[in-house]
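User: Please predict the structure of the protein below. I'd like the answer in structure-token form so I can feed it into my own downstream comparison script.

Assistant: Understood. Taking the following sequence of 419 residues as input:
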Amino acid sequence: MLQPLSAPLLLAAGLALAPVLAGAQGKPSGLPEGAGKERVEALCLACHQAREILASSGYTREGWKELAGTMIDLSRVPQDEDRVTQYLATHFPPNNRRAPKLVAGSERIVFKEWRTPTPGARSRDPIQAADGTIWYAGQWSNQIGRINPATGEIREYALPANAKPHTVTLDARGNVWYTGNANATIGYLEPATGKITEFRMPDPEAKDPHSAIFDAKGILWFTMQVSNRVGRLDPATGDVKTVALKAPNSRPYGIKISPDGVPWFACNGRPCIVRIDPATMALTEVKLPGQNSTVRRLDFERDGTIWYVNSGEGRIGRYRPKSGDIKEWPSPSGPKSHPYAIAVVNGIVWYNESGQRPDTLVRFDPATEKFQSWPIPSGGVHAGIIRHMRATREGNLVIHQSSTNRILLVTPVRSTAGR
């Protein structure tokens, strides 16, 4: 049986490897000179690039301490913690360079947060199971986890080497499927036994399973962004088939199933969304307006209308397959707001502005064409972005802030105002 992964395991590895990995980069970091710079380069840049610090909203020393603690436990080496947090607070204090344009309104929401236990996991892509538990992918820690919202208990499971799961999704039997983004596999965990079953990609050019979703027939459809492919997997037979997109650098990303059972996916490299024929896997592209348009994710209304985020131009869009009509709206924070995740719940469009700090949750009512937005919390700091959001059966949202290992439940409060 698979055992839960202990948080100190990744932590110890991170501390041991940090100086080696940082030194191996061999390039100027771009960080300003000052006492503690070398420890920041060794400990922080081992896992992420300097631009994550340079483009941050900045924090006080206590804020940097809290944020760093979600990535690596510096408290074991107090002198490192002091040097790192003092350097960061001195050179990167709070700023408003990327502040969002928040839109007030009459609607109310409540955020509930869980911090996942493994530092540096980059926990992401939560999804609610039939029993109310929430599953998520720990991409950088190579694990998947389960949260019991009723008790707050969190359990994490190690995956096969170098899987680096990009997402999780669930089948009708309650198995938890993940995409092995780094080892060209798709696998699933049986929660009752801890057993993991893997399926390898049949083509060496199919390298990075990315987003995935089941259709009503139990077929798993998935994208491969870097490989520029999409695929399907039949769990009953283990058969895996992939097809390459004709246009290079289309970068297929988010994928959803329409109400009539047809898979559609978003292009993160070109201005398009694409329909997959379920029987033949033939691809039909819908060209979107805007020279710089790129689409991270999409979702459906009950009537088959598609809503998508125009990440490249800071807009959200609506496409009606029956008429071919396309309409877009600028996101409140402007063309650099980079809308990322999206979900349509009870006729309301929810998405986030990932280019802003803090990351912003936005509500759009198609009936009134009105926006409202909120900063997304991460404990005592605002950091991280949503990369995927999904609805719960109660009509709420499960979201995350990947850099701070936060999984969140968003509950709209019933209101007599608005619709």
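That's the full token string. Helices lie at 7-25, 37-43, 51-54, 61-69, 78-91.
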